[in-house]
Amino acid sequence: MKAYFWCMITILGLSFSVTAQHNITTPEINTNPLYQKNIGKIVFLSKSIPSEQLTESDFLESFQNSDGNDLYLRVFIDNSLVNFLHTINTNLTVDELVQSGNFQFSFYADDKLLYTENLNTGAGTLQSKTKGTTFQIPLISKSGEDSWGRFLWSRFFFNGGGEDAFFSGKHKLTIEIRPYLKSSTTIKTGTLIAKGSLIVTAPIVSLSENQIAIQKIAPKSDWSLATATYDTTTIRLLNQKIQEKRFKDITSIVVIQNGKLVLEEYFNGSDRNTLHNTRSVGKSFASTLMGMAIRDGYIKNEKQTLNQFYKLKDFAHYSISKENVTLKSLLTMSSGFDGSDQNPDSPGNEENMYPTDNWVKFGLDLPMDSEKQIGKNWDYFTAGVVLLGDILNQRVPKGLESYAATKLFNPLGIKSYQWQYTPQNVANTAGGLQLRTLDLARYGQLYANKGLWNGKQLLPKEWVEKSFTNYFPEDPNTPGYGYLFWKESFTIKGKDYEAFACSGNGGNKVYIFQNVPLAIVITTTAYNKPYAHPQVRRMMQEFLLPAMIAQ
Predict the structure, then answer these.
(1) Residue 3 has pLDDT above 70, yes or no
(2) Can you tell me the distance from the alpha carbon of 193 to that of 73, in angstroms, rounded to the nearest whole number?
C-alpha cells in the first residue's frame, strides 16, 4: 500500500501545503545549515558562487539593472525535481518523468504576473533532476555561459514584458518555481516549491522633445511624399522607446504607403546616406536576379537541377539524390542537403562554411540528408544560396555583379551600394549587401508593384507571385517561406495583415504587405542579439502598423 505524508513549508512569509509520496529517487543529503535554513527559497547573487562557499552576506536584496552587472540565482528545494514530478503523476517511471516535465518559472513585476515558461525538458542534466536539491544559474552574465538560465531570462526580459516593467525606477521582481508535467493533451502543474524576491532599480531616462519628435523628411528623397495622415502619437511613442533604448540598436525606419514616402527616420548615428549591412536581407536579391535570368533566357526555369550546372561526381558524398536538387528547392530552403544553420552541429551550418577557401565546394561536398525530402522539408541553409549566386554568375553575361547593376540597381535608381564577396570574388548572395534605407524601400516597392517600376516590368509578375507563395503551410519550423522571402502575419484589432519579408541577422527587415499598400523597412545593428527579431516584430505589431492603418 502506498504511504503518504503531509508537510507544511513557509517561504518568504507564504505558507502552503504539499501532499507528497515516497520518493521515486533518492535525492542528495545536504546538511549544510545555510541550505537547511533556506529550503523553499530563491536567492539572488551578484556572481557565481559554489554552494560550499556561499554565505548569507552574498544574498542580494537589490540589483542595479544596468550594463555590466551580473545576476545569478540559487534555488534551495527539499527534494529532487523527479520526486516533485512524481507527485503529479505516480504512474510514470523516472525516464518518463524526465522526458515529460521540468521546472515552471513564473516572473512577477510588483506582484503582477508577467511571464510564465515551462522549461524545455532537455534543460538540466539527469543527475541534477534525480539527485539535486540546490542549483545555481546565471540570469545575466558578462561571460556568456551556455546556460538555459540566460536564455530563460532573455525570453522573459525581451519578449515577456520584463524590459518595460523594469525599465525605470524601483520595482520588485519575484520569481516562483513549480514542477510541471505535459502529456499529449494537457500540462499539469505541481505546487509551489521555491520563491524569491529582489528589488530592481534602473536609472530614470529624460528625453528632449527633439528626440521624441517625428523627424521631418528632408528634401531630395527622390520619392513623392504622401499626403495621407497617420497616428503621430503612436510614432512619437515609438521614437521615445528607441531613444530610451527599449528598442535597441535601431538605425532607421522608412514607411512607403501607396507608393509614396510617409515616414523616414534615422537613429544611433545613421542618416540617409548610411549603407546598412542588413545581412541575410541580401538573400532575397538572389531570388530577384534568378527571376530576371529565367525571363532573359540565361536559365531555363527553376526546375533545373544541380547536375545541369556542376559535375557532381567531382565532389564529395556523391549520390543520385544530389543530382535531383532543383533551383526551386534551393530558393525555398528545401534542397535536402545535410545542412542547417539552425543546428550548430550540422555539417552544413554556415559557420563551418565561412572559414573555407571555396564556399561553392563546401556546399557541393556536403552529403544529402536521408531524412529530408527534396522540396518538402524546410531547413534554413545559407550555403544553398551561395550555390544560386554561383550559378547566376556562371550563366548571366559579365557575371552576377554586372548583371545586377544593369537589370536591377540602375533601373531602380540605386547608385550607392556595396557587395560583399565570396573567396572566389563573386558577389555574395548569402548576405552582407549594403544599401541605403530609401533604396531598400525601392526594392520593397518593386515587389509591392508586382515587379513594375516607372512603367517598365523589371521583374515578371509571375515571379513575384511565386516568390510570395508559402510553400510550407504545415511546417512548424517556419511561419512560411517563399522564394527566399519569409511570410509573416500580424493581427491588428482582430484583422490579419499578411506580409512577405526580406529578413537578416539583427532584425533587419523589408516588409511588403499583401492586403494593404505598405512597404516598411527597418534596419538595425543588433547582430546575434536575442532581442533582435522579437523587438522588430513588436515595433511592427504595437506601433508602425497601428499607426499606419488607424486612419
Answers:
(1) no
(2) 15
